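ingest -> validate -> predict -> emit
validate: passed (alphabet ok, no gaps, 331 aa)
predict: started
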Amino acid sequence: MNIGQVAVGIILLLVVTVGLLYIFFSRTNAVQKTGYGSLIMLALVSVLIPIFWITGGSDQAAAKVQQHNLALERGMILYTQVCTDMCYGIKDNKVVNATYNGYTIADLNKLSDNDLRRIISAGVFNPASPHQPANANAVPKSDQYGGALLSNDIDYLFELIRSDDPSYLQKNQLPAGSGFSKLPEYLQNNNPTLYDAATKAANPVDFGEPVDKTSASTVSMDIVKADPSIKGCKTETACFQFVNIKVKVGQKITWTNKDVSPHTVTAITGTDPSKVTPAPQIFDSGKTGFSNGQSFTYTVTQDAYNLNPDHTVIYYCSLHPDMLAKLTIVQ
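emit:
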């Protein structure tokens, strides 16, 4: 409710009422009083109408804002549930690189309302996205298209996405502020694991320049207790001695575990360590890991050289996914 408008209306009503009552009681003729009485009634009604209109309009606006805020809250929670492939990151406790169905939020807000609702409802995934879903059935869609989203869910997601567009909020007389702004706090309180994953996605590992090991017949690599002096060592468990080494096809690499916990050496597909897909066909020391004092040896192959366009292989410990390192391969 607009308190200022109501206050002005009440003051105006009092002024008009007092003025008309003064005129009424200053008349002595009964006919004059009857006429002025009618005028007073009409004046009061005419003054009350805009007051009721202002009050009713203010109540309607307040209800609209309340409904919008509720939609943002539910849309945010729903977004964290249906976003099966990591489609946002968290940096400095703010959401970055947010997407929905492979489209950036900025691109979605360039669409018409009908097109945006169609993408949400029908589960249309961006064909140009570099991260296509492994299973098309995992893309969220409405129950009309065989999915789990209800009509209200479509509205919530629509409102969440539109809240990131200031012009939409201004046009619809809604309070400024993106619904995504509260997502980090929500995840911290309700899903710390997802919060950590989103933080890592927005803060990629800096592997640095590779250490050249191409002249060695056998490359020795220790797995050691976590050491912040090792560049790229972010885990609290253990680290690979070198996070990036340059090797050549045909060289042997031997990893020796000098930590108290067992570890694995497992290659992954692609160059994005936030999206871990093991590539055991390249190398994998096994699911159970090897213990303190044990080693794993691998001979660099042509397949490893060809795995990624930049001729690198990122690998990790499947028991401790924060442990990451990279091979830069030459022929």
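DSSP finds nine helices and 13 strands in the chain.
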